[in-house]
Design a protein that fits this description.
It is a single chain. The chain is of the alpha+beta class. The protein has a single domain, classed as Beta-Lactamase (2-Layer Sandwich). It is built from four helices and five strands. The chain has a five-stranded antiparallel β-sheet with strand order 2-1-5-4-3, with helices on both faces. A hairpin with a 3-residue loop joins strand 4 and strand 5. The longest helix is centred in the middle third of the chain and has 19 residues. The chain is globular and about 40 Å long.
Length: 130
């Protein structure tokens, strides 16, 4: 799978997405895509540490999947950003962040629910859902 192309499709799906990252299951960064003109709130080291913690939490959730089902996504909301985590197969995770101050610009751009739906549709592999 070409991760750069996948992240670009995700970024192109909604202008309110600030940043997207693919990591392995341990949170090690594999590919990154940033919205042009947007600066990060965290340093590279802080981002890496945050993604490792989120990946660890995802592993803990996965241990319960035999009882509650496979995880589809997780949302972490902060004052300045909202980060949504999606599994990418068994070995990787996708992190998508949007700013808390984002506004809809037209009917094809949206908030958290629309972004989750866009990303899930892209990850489904079904081009009729995109």
């Amino acid at each position: 799978m070409v991760f750069e192309g996948l992240l670009q499709r995700i970024m192109d799906s909604d202008v309110n997405i600030r940043h997207s990252v693919i990591t392995d299951v341990d949170g090690n960064i594999l590919t990154v895509n940033h919205r042009e003109g947007i600066s990060n709130y965290l340093s590279s080291d802080e981002t890496a540490a945050s993604l490792k913690r989120a990946a660890s939490a995802w592993k803990a959730r996965k241990e319960l999947s035999h009882k509650i089902g496979r995880g589809l996504y997780a949302v972490a909301a902060f004052e300045k950003i909202t980060r949504i985590t999606f599994p990418l197969g068994d070995n990787n995770l996708i992190f998508v962040s949007m700013g808390s101050d984002t506004m809809r610009m037209d009917l094809h751009e949206g908030g958290q629910k629309q972004i989750i739906e866009h990303v899930l549709n892209i990850l489904s592999g079904d081009p009729t859902k995109e």
